[in-house]
Design a protein that fits this description.
The complex is a heterodimer. Chain A is mainly alpha-helical. Chain A has helices spanning 2-10, 39-50, 54-67, 74-87, 91-104, 109-118, 131-149, 158-182, 186-199, 205-217, 221-234, 237-254. In chain A, 69% of the residues lie in helices and 0% in strands. Chain A starts with a helix and ends with a helix. By secondary structure, chain B is an all-alpha fold. In chain B, helix 7 runs antiparallel to helix 8 (132-145), helix 9 (151-164) packs antiparallel against helix 10 and helix 13 packs parallel to helix 15 (256-268). Chain B is elongated. Mean pLDDT of chain B is 86; it is low at 1-43. The chains are: A mainly alpha, B mainly alpha. Chain A binds chain B through residues 23-24, 30-31, 33, 35-39, 42-43, 46, 49-50, 150-152, 154, 157-159, 161, and chain B through 3, 7, 10, 99, 102-103, 106, 126, 129-134, 137, 163, 286-288, 318-319, 322-324.
Amino acid sequence: MVRECFLAALLCLSCALPAARAQFDLLVGPRQAPQAHSAQELDDYLGILEVPSDRERVQLVEAFAQHHPNSELLGIAYQYQMLAYRGLNDYDGVAQSGEKALKLHPDNLNTLVILANTLPNRVATGTVDDPRLAQAEQYARRVFEGIERMKLPRSVSPQRWQELRLEMEASAHEALGHVATKRGKLQEAILEFERAVQQNPVPQGSQFYRLGVAYMLAQKNDSAREALSRAAELGPEGIRKMTDAMLQKLKAEKK
Amino acid sequence: MKRTTAFLLSTCIRLFAAPAWAEEPREKENLPDVPSAVLKSEELSISGSADFRELWSYLDAQRWGEAKPLAEQLVAKHPQESFSHFCLGYILLRQHDNISAIHSLRRAERLGSKDPALPKTIGLAYYAINQFLLFKQQMRKGIEVAPGDPWPHYYLGLYEATVTENCAAALGHFDRALALRPDDAKMIYYRGFCHEMLDQRDLAQKDYEEAIRRLNSSEASFSLPHQGMARLLAGTDSAAALHHAELAVAQDVSVADNHSILAKIHEEMGKIPEAIRELKAAAQADPTLAAPHYQLYRLLTKQGEESAASRELAEFQKLKMLYGS
């Protein structure tokens, strides 16, 4: 039951990544910024950023790719599509648009983090050799490597970078924990989720939730209760609902 | 030096405005080319309205926060009038809402605005989001429609000096801008800066001196010509270099390079504690700069302050890794 709830919850989990805040790419300096070659191309791109619904955003990115197949902005457009698919809880959409984004910007940390966290979602727990887990693990490790190599534009202060870095590393640890959970390596999963929650300067309900569930699976119910309570505090609402269900389950088991 | 100058240039080209300027009226910003449509709107059918007169007074006072809702009302009342969109786009740009500004300015363009100030305004909006190809296209268009306007040349010069770091190309643009506006102290300074980058030190000095003369007579505050003079004179005339470096810092304490050059001159004159103080000010003014930390490491080591020196070395290494220099 716990496992089923955990699996059901995974697609709903979302983390507040820097990508969602950047119009072009926060970590790209002016000289490296992808360039639109026509005003219409830029108008179409900006339309993607401003459209209110995820569904429309997905469609606008498709149209953009069709009209501007060689656009330097296409890689970021696919990132937006990936985020929109995530908003729609569309696993295949996230995976496909993420892969397209990575093809154009192989080292983009936001894409790597999101794919690393998403790919394990459809893998059954206890599976060891599913290629999606290996892929997710590789992406998460590339996040750590990419962070080490990162050259920053001066618009990002060292303090801001430190926060962003910790957030991204926390998300990569979360992804590794997720992969470990699927492989049935609970101790490893707990360790990674603990790193994620300890490191993240912006505590995420989803990370505490995953940690709580991992504790539950490892029969560490007191720790599970503590982590889940923190997840419930942090929210958002979807996490709160899932957390409540887990806490009820723990309560029932205690009786 | 080049990096901080580049930063300043870039700040300049981003319409010279600190965010707070959107909120409160301040002295005239360093943007003398407020689009002529805004200032010469009597040609437009809507210009006689009371709404417009109020809007105009806010624009004139650069009170963007108060001007914006009025411009929005103007757009709602006159959606087919390109001027209303241009006006709103301009205000949005001054408020650093660049993407909304682009939408409004493009709408003005699509509605057939023939205002010669529109291309350079759209160009600046593109620049603000690092869309340099479109920026250049618009500036060229601006030159075509208003051949007597120096500003598109000036902006292209700033772009070449900061983004491509092609000072030879920048020099050509500044020369053209100055041919149209020979008295502008900043244009003179930036031409001098390009000369300096191209190792034409005599020409650079001539321009810096000329820029300082013009600034003195206008009482405007702009520290870079003094910084440039300090750079040129350091090593040959320490007393004069010191004088200029101190003036540069006095005029703008927020420019890291003003402190760095003053530190260098203090060190040359054997005033190590003063040099250390200025290097710390430079590091504080721009926390992404690695170089002041290395200089601090060097001077603190000389002073026998080993642990403070090693902290500076570690900071230097960290910043060099992150930002490259």
